[in-house]
Inverse folding.
């Protein structure tokens, strides 16, 4: 109870109690603030150390008083109560002091906290300020680097060099005295100069443009004039036609041909020009005959000019055409989707497409037989092909064995050595073929014609090995250099083929058609007879047992023609396998022999058979007869008959066999055998008519 | 039967002609140089090719070293026979014998040293020379061939000293007996004749075809090859290849070979022979066939044993005949490679 009441009354008690006590110390304060008493102010004035001493002292006093009270109480007695009361009062005073001290401590604590808080706030403010400043510094630094990195546009301008600038720029722009030392001013001055120059150039450009415009207008005017001239000229031409006809001057016809020739692709054009030129040159050489009446070489252009023109139209048109045709196709095929195979087929057809125009060359030989050559140009392959056809003045009876001689497929084969016309001469083609799955051009030559090398050369196309296609351009000089030799070769080829054709016709009937001018090569009486002359296949030839040497020597190519001849005399049968090179007669036919008489004799077991072969194969030059030696084959066969006669008649008679010799010796011979290999006298000496050794 | 088909190469007129010429070439004769390193071969076109045996046999031999070092036109007709002296190569064929210096033969445009023609009696056809034989003791050369005579020529003076007559047909081959100055000759008439060089007389005649054991009438009488060693002689041709004892003139061994032989020679205790057919045959003296080594030509005409002591590394057997190749046998049983014209 007492503690509670004291608590409630405490400020009063302190005031009433403390005022006189403290009033002595805080007189000036109280006087200054009037009647207000502030314990907070008092706190400032007191020393905490002394308060602490006071607190200790009070606590000791309280302890002492408590101990005395307890002591008194334990003694007991009546007078003790007073003393205890006294002591109690003293303790109360001490409690008061303690309370006071407690309050003071609280106030101090609160004050301390306030101070700390205040200080902390100050520090926070400073911190914020610091951060702001740092941010500002960073920003400024960024700005500085930005400025440093700035690129002016003028640096990209390609300025004239310094020396040139000082040499050419007028002094009012260059200002040498100012700009020499100051690079900034210098650059500015140079930029000024650049601007000046560009302005001038722009001015010039405008002038040129206007000039161009003017010239274009002039051209337009002139063109109009020229086009108005064309119909007039045409009408004049038209009017002159009857005069031309009357005077045998077919300028117009030639002109028309030249007009068509303009649409030829370059290689065919080269061929056309060169062939025409060559034909005219030939005609002029025979000046005794009227020109253009007996022309050995005539040139014509075939095919549709419109199609050729269409080729040069812009690609859109052609695409339209294609799609149109595609649509039609689809309709006809009932909208069937084209399979892969069909697509490839189309691609192949496209690749092997010929130019719509072709050049026809008619080469007339002396005996009025004509070689018709048609030259085509394969646009996508950039090669030329040729088809050949031979027509003769008189109808030919075609012997069976001559089947291939004049066939378009082989008549021109190997015109130059090795030129079979089966492979494409353009190396680039192989890659194109790979794409569309064509293995070789060989399968298509019957349709397209043969791409012989000489054809390319006539067209001025030269294909060096391992060279890209774009270097191939039609060249006139190449064509010109080949024209004459090729034409001569073509003529000889046709003549030799026709000659062979004639010879075959007789050979098939067992007649060796020796002409009168070759008669001196042979004795008058030849007993051995040709009984068979047939053509055989290349494979069959390769299979024969006595042709091995020729096959191994590489002389039996599949472009050659192969024949089998059989020569008989009595019981002796001589088989001769013949290789006819397409280059006949400059390359001789090659014979391999097999004699069936007293056993089988070939070059491997009889030296004289070998000698007979070499007589016809190696010594063929003496059998050529008069140039151009088309009779060679006939002469070789006749020679073979003579050789067989000699062989049989000179055979040494076997003493052990009874009866007369089968072949009595009728030929006049100086000696029967000669040399280590016992050769027979195969050489015929013409005027005397005897046989001797070679 | 499949045949190897060579790769087709385009052939022009010249190439075809050359190929045909090679195909019909016959190599008739061979001779080894005195140094033993070169081999001369003569063909039916009158050309002589010199091959370098040492180059072809060396370990780094290439295809080119099997080709001739030099080829030249020696005669107009075939070169049927060649022999080598210490310094010269003597070649003969179409009636003339020509001498070439071995020292200069490898140079381009080599000219013949001299040429001689034996005195022939006929004028219509110049007789060929089928065989040449050196007689070292007399320093002379014996020529035989188409005019059925043996001509001896003094190599010192170049004069023809003797003519040995007796053959009735042309002479194929000659052989020298080493001890006594005697020469054997075999000819188309089927006789082997033995000549004494001192008296220039025929001392013995063996008419081979008359002996039934070796006669083969369907092949003819001719003696194509001949070789001798002391008292022994081996000859062949139309009749069978036969070993003869000369003193008694009797055939001792008949070798069972059907094809006519064109060349025969003694080698150590063997007899080597070649002729029609691809093989070089090796015989024991008793008549057994020891070996048959196939060559590359369909028929062989000459064998040459290089036994020059100067070049032991080139000791080979070469065989040539009806082809443009000379087969080289490094030992008797094996054909190593072919030289080719």
């Amino acid at each position: 109870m007492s503690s509670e009441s004291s608590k409630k009354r405490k400020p009063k008690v302190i005031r009433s109690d403390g005022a006189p006590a403290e009033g002595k110390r805080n007189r000036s304060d109280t006087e200054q603030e009037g009647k207000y008493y502030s314990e907070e102010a008092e706190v400032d004035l007191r020393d905490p150390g002394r308060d602490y001493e006071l607190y200790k002292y009070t606590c000791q006093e309280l302890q002492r008083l408590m101990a005395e009270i307890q002591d008194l109480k334990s003694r007991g007695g009546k007078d003790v109560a007073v003393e205890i009361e006294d002591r109690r009062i003293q303790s109360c005073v001490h409690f008061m002091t303690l309370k006071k001290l407690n309050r003071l401590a609280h106030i101090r604590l609160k004050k301390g906290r306030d101070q700390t808080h205040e200080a902390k706030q100050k520090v926070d403010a400073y911190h914020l300020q610091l951060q702001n400043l740092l941010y500002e510094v960073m920003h400024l630094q960024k700005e500085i680097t930005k400025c440093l990195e700035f690129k002016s546009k003028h640096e990209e301008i390609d300025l004239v060099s310094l020396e040139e600038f000082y040499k050419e720029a007028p002094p009012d722009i260059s200002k040498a005295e100012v700009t020499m030392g100051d690079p900034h001013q210098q650059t500015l001055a140079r930029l000024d100069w650049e601007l000046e120059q560009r302005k001038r150039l722009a001015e010039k450009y405008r002038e040129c443009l206007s000039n161009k415009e003017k010239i274009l207008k002039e051209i337009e005017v002139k063109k109009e004039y020229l086009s108005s001239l064309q119909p007039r000229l045409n009408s004049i031409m038209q009017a002159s036609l009857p005069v031309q006809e009357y005077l045998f001057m077919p300028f117009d016809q030639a002109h028309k041909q030249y007009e068509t020739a303009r649409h030829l692709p370059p290689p065919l054009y080269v061929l056309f020009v060169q062939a025409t030129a060559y034909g005219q040159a030939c005609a002029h050489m025979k000046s005794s005959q009227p020109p253009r009446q007996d022309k050995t070489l005539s040139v014509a252009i075939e095919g549709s000019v419109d199609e050729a023109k269409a080729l040069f139209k812009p690609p859109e048109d052609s695409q339209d055409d294609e799609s149109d045709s595609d649509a039609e196709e689809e309709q006809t095929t009932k909208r069937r989707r084209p399979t892969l195979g069909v697509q490839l087929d189309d691609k192949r057809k496209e690749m092997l497409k010929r130019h719509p125009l072709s050049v026809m060359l008619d080469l007339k030989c002396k005996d009025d037989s004509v070689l018709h050559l048609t030259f085509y140009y394969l646009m996508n392959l950039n090669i030329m092909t040729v088809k050949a056809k031979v027509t003769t003045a008189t109808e030919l009876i075609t012997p069976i064995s001559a089947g291939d001689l004049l066939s378009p497929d082989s008549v021109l084969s190997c015109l130059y050595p090795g030129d079979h016309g089966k492979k494409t001469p353009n190396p680039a083609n192989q890659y194109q073929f790979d794409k569309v799955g064509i293995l070789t051009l060989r399968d298509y030559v019957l349709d397209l014609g043969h791409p012989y090398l000489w054809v390319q050369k006539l067209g001025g196309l030269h294909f060096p090995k391992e060279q890209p296609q774009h270097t191939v351009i039609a060249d006139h000089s190449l064509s010109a250099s080949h024209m004459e030799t090729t034409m001569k070769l073509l003529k000889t080829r046709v003549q030799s083929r026709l000659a062979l054709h004639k010879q075959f016709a007789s050979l098939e009937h067992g007649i060796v058609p020796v002409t009168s001018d070759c008669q001196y090569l042979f004795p008058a009486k030849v007993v051995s007879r040709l009984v068979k002359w047939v053509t055989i296949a290349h494979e069959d030839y390769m299979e024969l047992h006595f042709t091995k040497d020729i096959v191994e020597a590489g002389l039996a190519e599949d472009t050659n023609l192969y024949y089998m001849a059989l020569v008989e005399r009595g019981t002796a049968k001589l088989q001769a396998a013949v290789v006819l090179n397409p280059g006949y007669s400059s390359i001789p036919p090659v014979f391999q022999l097999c004699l069936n008489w007293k056993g089988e004799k070939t070059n491997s077991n009889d030296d004289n058979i070998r000698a007979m072969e070499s007589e016809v194969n190696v010594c063929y030059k003496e059998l050529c007869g008069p140039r151009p030696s088309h009779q060679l084959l006939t002469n070789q066969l006749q020679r073979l008959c003579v050789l067989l006669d000699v062989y049989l008649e000179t055979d040494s008679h076997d003493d052990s066999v009874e009866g007369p010799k089968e072949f009595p010796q009728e030929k006049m011979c100086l000696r029967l055998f000669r040399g280590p290999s016992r050769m027979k006298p195969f050489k015929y000496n013409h005027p005397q008519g005897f046989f001797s050794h070679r | 039967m499949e045949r190897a088909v060579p790769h087709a190469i385009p052939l022009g007129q010249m190439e075809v002609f050359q190929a045909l010429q090679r195909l019909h070439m016959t190599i008739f004769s061979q001779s080894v140089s005195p140094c033993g390193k070169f081999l001369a071969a003569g063909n039916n076109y009158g050309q002589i090719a010199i091959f370098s045996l040492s180059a072809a046999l060396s370990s780094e031999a290439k295809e080119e070293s099997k080709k001739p070092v030099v080829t030249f036109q020696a005669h107009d007709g075939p070169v049927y026979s060649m022999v080598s002296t210490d310094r010269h190569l003597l070649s003969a064929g179409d009636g003339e014998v020509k001498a070439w210096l071995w020292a200069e033969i490898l140079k381009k445009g080599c000219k013949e040293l001299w040429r001689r023609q034996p005195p022939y009696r006929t004028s219509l056809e110049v007789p060929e020379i089928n065989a040449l034989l050196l007689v070292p003791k007399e320093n002379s050369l014996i020529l035989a061939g188409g005019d059925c005579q043996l001509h001896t020529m003094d190599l010192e003076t170049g004069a023809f000293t003797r003519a040995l007559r007796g053959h009735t047909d042309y002479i194929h081959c000659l052989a020298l007996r080493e001890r006594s100055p005697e020469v054997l000759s075999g000819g188309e008439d089927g006789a082997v004749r033995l000549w004494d060089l001192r008296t220039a007389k025929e001392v013995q005649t063996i008419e081979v075809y008359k002996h039934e054991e070796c006669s083969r009438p369907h092949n003819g009488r001719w003696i194509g090859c001949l070789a001798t060693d002391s008292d022994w002689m081996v000859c062949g041709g139309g009749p069978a290849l036969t070993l003869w004892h000369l003193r008694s003139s009797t055939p001792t061994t008949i070798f069972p070979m059907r094809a006519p032989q064109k060349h025969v020679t003694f080698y150590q205790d063997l007899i080597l022979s070649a002729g029609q057919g691809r093989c070089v045959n090796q015989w024991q003296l008793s008549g057994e066939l020891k070996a048959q080594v196939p060559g590359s030509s369909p028929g062989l005409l000459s064998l040459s044993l290089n036994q020059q002591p100067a070049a032991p590394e080139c000791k080979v057997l070469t065989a040539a005949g009806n082809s443009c190749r000379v087969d080289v046998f490094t030992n008797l049983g094996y054909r190593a490679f072919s030289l080719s014209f």
Remarks:
- Chain A touches chain B through 46 residues (CB under 8 Å).
